[in-house]
Amino acid sequence: MRDPAAPIAAIIVNWNGASDTLAVLEELGSVEGLALRTIVVENGSTDDSLERLEASDLAFELIKTGDNLGFAGGNLVGIRHAAADPEVEWFLLINNDVVVDPGFLTPLIEACRDPEVGAAGPKIYYHEPARLLWAAGGRLRVRETVTEEFGKGNLDQGQWDQARDVTYLTTCCLLVPRDALERVGLLDPLFFIGVEDADWCRRALDSGYRLRYVPESRIWHKVAVSTGGSYTPFKTFHTGRSNTLYARRHLNLGGLVRFLSANLAALVAAFIRELPRGNTAAVVAKAKGVWSGLSDRLSQPPGFEESNPKSKVTDS
């Protein structure tokens, strides 16, 4: 039986984003309901993030990885640190670049009281304009990318106000009960950035769990802050690589062929689109990412019981 009053660990990964991290820490300190045990994973930032986090008088645990382990790898460290406390029964994975409604957490916990629900996620808006939807749940698919966010780019007029089961929830904000992590396993650092959430959702569905979109819970997302924009060589390389790794792990041969065909068509269209913009390097980077995803070694996803690599933990 899941206990709604059990301790909750909130895990935030910081990479060169101390201003956003400190802002969301303040907001989480005012969340209605249960107090959060907040853990910040300082993921090898190259700016002054570590110094600013260490100088903060906000209450949180600070883990220093020493290197950039990627989004999934940083979350992996934070989850395992929190899981060492057997009393922690809820894990809130949340981006540092979000603004939260004070009442966002309780509806997620209520949804996850159903033992068949493996995770719950909120209605997510763009930060600006504040009523424009970024994700109202989503679905897994076989296209050039393997996810689709419902309602993306639409003005919220109540059309996504019904709670429902979905096949995809983003780790921008995801509440996961302990037993689900124990059965499904953790985010896989094979996906350095992006698609780690799709991979986890697919594994959760395959484990027999439902995924629940909860519109009563609301947050606002400052999109693409950590990657420097939506169509840069860094972003497109990892988009291509991570989507391809997902396709290799979860699709049959026919699905993989459809995925690669869709990517080939998308790359040609993107090259034509980006040529007058002088941004063909981003297209080439995506092609390299797809190749990397085809050639990189696939490993087993990390289990819940494994230990953390060496990292330093301090209280701020």
Helices and strands in order:
Elements: E1 8-14, H1 18-28, E2 36-42, H2 49-55, E3 61-64, H3 70-83, E4 90-94, E5 98-100, H4 105-112, E6 117-126, E7 133-135, E8 138-140, E9 147-149, E10 164-166, E11 173-177, H5 178-184, H6 196-206, E12 210-221, H7 233-250, H8 253-274, H9 280-295, E13 312-315
Parallel strand pairs: 1-2, 1-4, 2-3, 6-12
Antiparallel strand pairs: 3-13, 4-11, 5-12, 6-7, 8-9, 10-12
Helix pairs in contact: 7-9, 8-9
Task: Provide an overview of this structure.
The protein is of the alpha/beta class and about 325 residues long. The protein is about 35% helix and about 20% strand. The protein is built from 9 helices and 13 strands. The strands form 3 sheets. It has a 6-stranded mixed beta sheet, with helices on both faces. Strands 5, 6, 7, 10 and 12 form a 5-stranded mixed beta sheet that branches. Strands 8-9 form a two-stranded antiparallel ribbon. Helix 7 runs parallel beside helix 9 (about 280-295) and helix 8 runs antiparallel to helix 9 (about 280-295). It is globular. The two termini are about 35 Å apart.
Main pleated-sheet profile = 6 strands, mixed
Question: Which sequence of SSEs, written as H and E, runs from N to C?
Answer: EHEHEHEEHEEEEEEHHEHHHE
- What is the CA-CA span between the terminal residues? 33 Å
Number of helices: 9
* Quantity of strands, as a count: 13
Spans of at least 5 consecutive residues with low confidence: none
Structural class computed from helices and strand pairing: alpha/beta
In terms of DSSP E residues, the strand content is 15-25%
Gyration radius, in Å: 19 Å
